[in-house]
Amino acid sequence: MTGRPAPVTGPITGPITGTRPVPDPRLGSLVLGITLFRPRPDQVARVRALASAGDAAVIAFDNGGLPAGTADQLARAGVTLLSAGTNLGIAEALNRIAAAARAAGGGTLLLLDQDAEPPADLAAALLAARDRLREAGIPAAVVGPVPAPAPGHKAPAYPPRPGAPARDGLAPVQFLATSGSLVDLDAFARVGPFRGDFFIDGVELEWCFRAWSLGYGCYRADAVAIPHRVGGGTIRAFGITMPRQPLFRMATYLRNAIYAWRLPHVPPRWKLAQAAYLPLQAGLYWADSGFRPAVLLRLLAAARDGALGRLGPPRDLPRDLPRDLPRDLPRDLP
After folding, report:
1. DSSP of 159-209, one letter per residue?
2. 158 in Cβ contact with 175 (< 8 Å)
3. Could you report the per-residue pLDDT of 120-133, keeping only the tens digit for each?
4. Residue 68: which pLDDT band, with cuts at 50, 70 and 90?
5. Cβ–Cβ < 8 Å for 317, 87
6. In 3D, which of 299, 260, 261, 306 has the Cα closest to residue 280?
7. Cα-based angle 123, 125, 130 (whole degrees, multiple of 5)
8. Model confidence, pTM
9. For a Cys staple, 225 with which of 102, 148, 325, 328, CB 3.0–4.6 Å?
10. Of 204, 163, 159, 199, whose CA–CA distance to 181 is shortest?
């Protein structure tokens, strides 16, 4: 197809403005998808700038309420704003963005968190990487950049996918973070949506494992990087580094990781690694909390919920989360 995807019908929509001096034909069917959770003014300004640049249509999902006047500002900049009026979780927000992008005629979807700081060439570099995979006959569901560490945060690591073909500067990996990743929407339709019942943590792991099981790869493009911020600092002990997360986030991560043991498309090697690593993470988290009994009980309840398949929104999801709570998902690896 040629030209930009049509504007998406939603609660707030506006014309896409701005042009590129030298249009890149690969950007024609690209959509930028951004998840919002009570963004700061500087984060809103960044989203407006992305839309005003005119490189691609921009769809944002408001997952927690916007300050007065922010919706109008985004609409005037050309952002299509979707919202359900409540916090549906990161997985459902991404699913609704993908559905809206597909309905608008988009072919690829570049996902970004509200605090992401993508390099100017990110979209073009990932599209070029996707094209190289296509030329080699390698079906890919998603291509993402190298995760660069941000000050005070642990950068995620993407373990290699054994036996999958590599391609000049493109490494097959088990999974990628959602923020900064370029999703092929045809592949997304075949792989299926992110698991809404996971709500927030581990959704990209499960989806990428599912993509691999269906013959679609996940590839890291080593020529481009993006900073990642996970959690509110780090916990370090016994050679292990993990993000410091709010308790409901750690509990949800633990629950979803344990539930994933029953999924056939999750590799046995990953399940064994997690079986050894999760107790260490939980123990370090508890120690970092000062060995508070309430924290241990919450983590044990999360493990029980995962084993019993009790998923969905965390029961202790705060109604008023800090505005600067990072929206990246935990990617704690052994």
Report:
1. -B-TTPPPBTTEEEBS---STT-EEEHHHHHHH----GGGTTSSHHHHHHH
2. yes
3. 999 999 999 999 99
4. confident
5. yes
6. 299
7. 95
8. 0.87
9. 148
10. 204
